[in-house]
Design a protein that fits this description.
Layout lengths: L2 H9 L1 E6 L3 E17 L2 E15 L2 E7 L12 H16 L4 E3 H8 L6 H19 L3 H5 L5 E3 L2 E3 L5 H13 L4 E5 L6 H10 L4 E5 L9 H4 L9 E3 L7 H10 L4 E3 L6 H9 L5 E4 L1 H4 L2 H14 L3 E3 L6 H11 L13 H4 L5 E2 L9 E3 L9 E2 L1 H7 E8 L4
The structure holds 2-succinylbenzoate and magnesium ion.
Length: 389
């Protein structure tokens, strides 16, 4: 953790250290309004993994963004349940918890499982914000009242379906269009979108579908004035991304490769990207996200907030995070109704016609969790209570 982030993480603290009483793990399945397809696969519904952390009669909510299958990353809902139940939760029940720095220190000996630890850090910081009676965004150091947002458009069966979705979402106000690409659905598709929308902020996200052997083909994207090309190569290949970045005029942005502070510093040092996609789940929680944020600000590297088809809980966390000063590009934070007929929070997240989302002024997440609706859709609920008296 960087020095600046270490001090801000220590300031993310409840008024006094708290005994955590219980941690609830809940799996809730919501249908997606339409299937979402990326180069790694297709999803028809989202199995949400929600965390509720209780202390002093107050609850904080977090979300574990892992998928059911290890496609975006090696983590899954089941590996995250195991890591939380058997390692992360027991580490929190020992004595009183003082701050986010304390939470991160208790997890520091464990390797991996970033989405699992992030789910707990999210719930903890929401809990802290509610105990302080402050909005989550303010507790995190956010400075914006509204955050700019774009939309991520999945791979479609036909070009006309994609073009219709581009038009619809621009009409809704989204400030940036991101198109999922894969071999066979890339340069020609992007050229058609660009032809119809000469000046829109436009990007492509490959989710690691290419290799350096595709470099000549990927250069075809350079003529399209894209804002960025996101994660063209394997997550482990930051050297190859640096090689590719030298051959392209378009900025590369890393998503899957950004797994922590050291990796981000290394990627920036070797020129593997010029833009960073921040996902608090992928980097292991707010403690790590704030450190990476501060590094990117110090290097002048633009950040934006990525998304993982979160429920309203994860979405509200993303809105709060994106209100920090380093988030200078529109995030993948859509309205609730972009993905779900009914979200699990009230009010739902809405995008204004100017393509922004208001950062809520209320305490904590600033949204109410619709517990009766959650109960009706839960596939599993597990309550871990503090052991002993
Ligand atoms: O790569 O950004 C990605 C969704 C699931 C997994 C990975 C990604 C995405 C998206 C959608 O692009 C982002 C969102 O709107 O939540
Ligand atoms: Mg991505």
């Amino acid at each position: 953790m960087g020095a600046a982030a270490a001090s801000s993480v220590a300031r993310i603290a409840s008024p006094a250290p708290v005994r955590l009483d219980a941690l609830e793990l809940r799996l809730v399945r919501l249908p997606l309004r339409e299937p979402f397809e990326a180069s790694f696969g297709r999803m028809e519904s989202r199995l949400l993994f929600l965390i509720r952390l209780e202390a002093e009669g107050t609850a904080g909510w977090g979300e574990v963004v892992a998928g059911e299958r290890p496609l975006f990353s090696y983590e899954t809902v089941e590996t995250a349940r195991h890591a939380i139940r058997d390692f992360f939760a027991p580490a929190l029940f020992d004595g009183r918890v003082g701050s986010l720095a304390d939470v991160a220190a208790r997890f520091a000996a464990f390797r991996g499982h970033p989405m699992a630890r992030a789910g707990i850090e999210l719930a903890y910081v929401d809990l802290v914000a509610r105990l302080r009676g402050e909005p989550l965004a303010r507790v995190l150091g956010g400075t914006r009242e509204r955050v700019a947002v774009g939309v991520s458009l999945g791979i479609q069966p036909r070009l006309d379906a994609l073009l219709a979705r581009v038009d619809q979402n621009l009409e809704l106000g989204y400030q940036r269009i991101k198109v999922k690409i894969k071999p066979g659905w890339d340069v020609d598709v992007m050229r058609e979108v660009r032809r119809r929308h000469p000046s829109v902020l436009l990007s492509a996200d490959a989710n690691a579908a290419y290799t350096l052997g595709d470099r000549e083909h990927l250069k075809g994207l350079d003529a399209l004035a894209l804002l960025m090309i996101e994660q063209p190569l394997d997550p482990d290949d930051i050297l190859d991304h640096a090689t590719l970045q030298k051959e392209l005029t378009t900025a590369l942005c890393l998503d899957e490769s950004i797994t922590g502070l050291a990796r981000t510093r290394q990627a920036l040092d070797i020129g593997a990207c010029r833009i960073v996609n921040m996902k608090v789940g992928r980097v292991g929680g707010y403690s790590h996200a704030l450190a990476i944020h501060d590094l990117c600000v110090s290097r002048g590297v633009p950040l934006w907030c990525g998304g993982m088809l979160e429920s309203g809980i994860g979405r509200a966390h993303n809105v709060a995070l994106a209100s920090l000063p380093g988030f200078t590009l529109p995030g993948d934070i859509s309205a609730s109704r972009r993905y779900f007929a009914r979200d699990i929070i009230a009010p739902e997240v809405e995008v204004a016609p100017d393509g922004t989302i208001a950062v809520p002024p209320g305490p904590g997440l600033g949204f109410e969790v619709d517990v009766p609706f959650l109960e009706s859709r839960s596939e599993a609920v597990e309550r871990l209570a503090r052991p002993g008296p």
